[in-house]
Amino acid sequence: MKVSDILRVKGNALYTITPEDSLADAAQLMADKDIGSLVVMSNGLVVGMLTFREVIHTLVKNGGSFGTTTVYRAMDPGPLTCTMATDMDEVRRMMLDRHARYMPVIENRMLMGVVSFYDVAKAVVDAQNFENKMLKAYIRDWPEEEEPQADDSEQKQR
User: Fold this and answer.
1) Residues 18, 23: Cα–Cα separation, whole Å
2) Among 8, 22, 38, 138, whose Cα sits 20 to 30 Å from the Cα of 116?
3) Chain segment 14-46, per-residue pLDDT in tens
């Protein structure tokens, strides 16, 4: 399974913000849209990732206040990325290695979407459910074995 398969099922909703926007505005957008991340874009390019993790770290560092903090000050400037052709097993490995919950999908320097750890887990569960269904159908439709024929010596004894 490839990243393109997940994005096809997931849909096209994509939320971005600029590095110059305030962190308070970013947190408000995340709360309003009930999302855990924003892709940080500048001049049409991905320059970072802002997740609830970075928002919480910044809030704690600032004594519970956003103050005048910009997205640039809080964002992860080097997020993991993948392409539409990246295999889901590779995405899963990369996310686990870096404890990343969100990964921008970039194709030819253009943002195509975001894959979340939830998306990856859901794809794995869906694939396993499909495989289980196919195996159960195969077992249910298993051809019955023919009764072994008694040989002549057994028939004579009867």
Assistant:
1) 10
2) 22
3) 999 999 999 999 999 999 999 999 999 999 999
